[in-house]
Amino acid sequence: MIKLYDFLSCPYGQKVRIVLAEKSLSYDLVTVDLTQNEHRRPDFLRLNPFGRVPVLVDEDTTIYDSTIINEYLEDEYPEPPVLPPVGSSAMRARARIFEDFADTSFTPQVGQLIAEASKPEGERDQNRLQRLHQSVERVLDYLNNELKGQQFLAGEFSVADIGFAPRLLVLKDIGIDLAANNRINVDGWLKRMQERPSIQGLQGVAAEAVLGG
Asked: What angle do CA 168, 171, 175 make, to 5 degrees?
């Protein structure tokens, strides 16, 4: 049986849960409460010395880092795929590039924006809020261009799209309109993702992360 050590509002853990759902894999969820510093406990640090979620344990195999976990799941449970077909090297590379871009240049910025916007009004740094807001908007404009004529970022639905999904789901709640600036491609892209059961299962959790639930 697969075990997933995770904190429900963590967007990187959500990436893994989307892949597990896409592949219809059963698993036991072990909640690691980051607010209670459970990720610093010795038993968890034995699983991941960096003290971060998610961690996946599959029989005798322990993997951490959401991207590596999803690569493992694709290798071990290849159907249905979440990467373009073997042989489509350029498209597989494109999927991985976009997943990395989401992890490094989108997900953290949205998280910082949520954190700043969640502060009492008198404690918010308005200049920082504006910078973060503009950074997220620039990414959305870039994605809108990359999605021209495409249903998804790398052909079929893949880790490229999955990487962006958790934070895309919360943008409306923090005052960012996906369809603004004529971003019809991004707006349509999210709507297509929201039709998938794997994404639908995350929407309530994503909203709670913004609202402090």
From this structure: 165
Give the model's pLDDT for residue 205: 62
- Residue 51, CA atoms < 13 Å, CB-side half-sphere: 9
In this structure, are 196 and 112 located in the same domain?
A: yes
Confidence bin at 154 (pLDDT 50/70/90): very high
Report the number of distinct structural domains present in the chain.
2
77 touches 23 (CB < 8 A): yes
Catalytic residue among 4, 8, 10, 110: 10
CA distance to 80, 122, 180, per residue, from 166 (Å): 20, 29, 20
**Is 105 domain-assigned?**
yes
Task: Report residue 185 as tokens.
Answer: 């491609």
**Is 211 part of the annotated catalytic residue set?**
no
Using one digit for the tens of pLDDT, what is the confidence trace for 42-85?
A: 899 999 999 999 999 999 999 999 999 999 999 999 999 999 99
CA dist list (Å): 127 to 113, 116, 133, 134, 187:
11, 11, 10, 11, 27
Q: The domain containing residue 62 runs over which residues?
A: 2-76
Q: Do 29 and 113 share a domain, yes or no?
A: no
